[in-house]
């Protein structure tokens, strides 16, 4: 039996189940529930080499749209790059990379991916170069007890969401549609990718503030997780007219001394932190490396980063 490249995985039962099994085998990732809940959209396009219905290698195209300073750019992010251990050494990954680049390089503003440390020498063969991502961190100057549930002053109060509940899911989608108000580089129109995280590994780390604006109900969602005295604020979504400082201090649990942002904030939002926080922007330390391909301006030229929830 020969091999073929297919782009039709989602709607082919046999190939889709084989793809699920390979992702679990190689990365320990589960796509099944994500698919069954309807979040696999046309933005996620696996290019797979198949032997019959068996997926033996894959490179996935993720169609991404980002907005910054009123300009919208369309990128392709590559992900789920994998080969079945039984089929390695046959050039399948190279064949898929060449196919994807050939078909997409003239249809987008750039191609990028995040690579693990054991494959850093692979992607430069296809014209990719390493790029930096910058991370903003805030360290509290004084007592952290006035944050979150320990805050005495009036202000927004976030509660935990349960996206299994229809009303919470509706609120979440409404806020996501409103965008990320504090992000200088925000992902647009990709509920499927956000739900890969928020429907699984981050499902217990989603919080909601229900405010009032112009006489109508609106709100804001925070996706964040606490480790020790550090609050990793992955992103905010919604149209509530509050500052990043107000939102971050309200979402962070009492006792938080450091806030790490999973996105690049608008500079004017940072000014509000100066009275009570020390701020630092530095290249992100991570176990993955950003590789980019294409000639136009990438986020690192403006000390930005792709939002954490946009990574594949």
Based on secondary structure, the structural category is alpha+beta
According to CATH, what is the class of the largest domain? Alpha Beta
Strand content: 25-35%
Instruction: Extract low-pLDDT stretches.
Output: 149-153
Using the 3D structure, state the CATH architecture of the largest domain: 3-Layer(aba) Sandwich
Mean pLDDT: 91
In CATH, the topology of the largest domain is named Aminopeptidase
Percentage of residues in helical conformation: 10-25%
Largest sheet: 8 strands, mixed
Task: Return the string of H and E elements.
Answer: EHHEEEHEEEEHEHEEEHEHEE
Sum up the overall morphology in one term.
globular
CATH homologous superfamily placement of the largest domain: Gcn5-related N-acetyltransferase (GNAT)
Distance between the termini: 32 Å
Radius of gyration: 21 Å
Oligomer: single chain
Query: How many strand elements?
Result: 15
Q: Number of DSSP helices?
A: 7
Number of domains: 2
SSE diagram, text form:
Blueprint: E1 4-6, H1 13-27, H2 32-36, E2 44-51, E3 54-68, E4 71-83, H3 92-104, E5 111-116, E6 129-131, E7 134-140, E8 159-160, H4 166-178, E9 186-187, H5 191-198, E10 206-213, E11 216-227, E12 230-238, H6 244-251, E13 258-261, H7 267-270, E14 277-283, E15 288-293
Parallel strand pairs: 4-5, 12-13
Antiparallel strand pairs: 1-2, 2-3, 3-4, 3-9, 5-15, 6-15, 7-13, 7-14, 8-10, 10-11, 11-12
């Amino acid at each position: 039996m020969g091999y073929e490249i297919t782009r039709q995985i989602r709607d082919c039962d046999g190939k889709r189940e084989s793809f699920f099994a390979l992702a679990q085998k190689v990365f320990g990732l589960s796509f099944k529930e994500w698919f069954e809940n309807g979040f696999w959209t046309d933005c996620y396009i696996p290019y797979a080499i198949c032997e019959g219905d068996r997926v033996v290698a894959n490179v996935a195209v993720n169609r991404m749209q980002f907005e910054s300073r009123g300009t919208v750019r369309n990128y392709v992010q590559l992900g789920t790059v994998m080969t079945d251990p039984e089929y390695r050494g046959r050039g399948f990954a190279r064949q898929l990379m060449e196919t994807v680049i050939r078909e997409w390089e003239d249809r987008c503003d750039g191609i990028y991916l995040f690579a693990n440390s054991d494959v850093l020498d692979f992607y430069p063969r296809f014209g990719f170069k390493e790029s930096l991502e910058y991370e903003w961190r805030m360290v509290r100057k004084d007592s952290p007890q006035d944050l979150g549930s320990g805050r005495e002053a009036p202000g927004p109060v976030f509660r935990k969401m349960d996206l299994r509940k229809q009303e919470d899911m509706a609120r979440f989608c409404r806020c996501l549609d409103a965008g990320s108000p504090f992000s200088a580089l925000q992902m647009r129109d990709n509920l499927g990718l956000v739900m890969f995280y928020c429907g699984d590994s981050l499902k217990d780390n989603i919080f909601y503030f229900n405010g009032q604006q112009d006489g109508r109900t609106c709100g804001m969602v925070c996706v964040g997780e606490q480790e020790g005295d550090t609050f990793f604020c992955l992103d905010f979504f919604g149209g509530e007219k509050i500052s990043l400082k107000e939102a971050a201090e309200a979402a962070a649990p009492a006792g938080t001394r450091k806030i790490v942002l999973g996105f690049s904030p608008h500079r004017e939002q940072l000014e509000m932190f100066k009275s009570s926080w020390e701020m630092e922007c530095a290249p992100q330390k991570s176990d993955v490396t950003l590789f980019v391909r294409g000639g136009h301006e990438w986020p690192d030229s403006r000390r930005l980063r792709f939002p954490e929830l946009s990574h594949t």
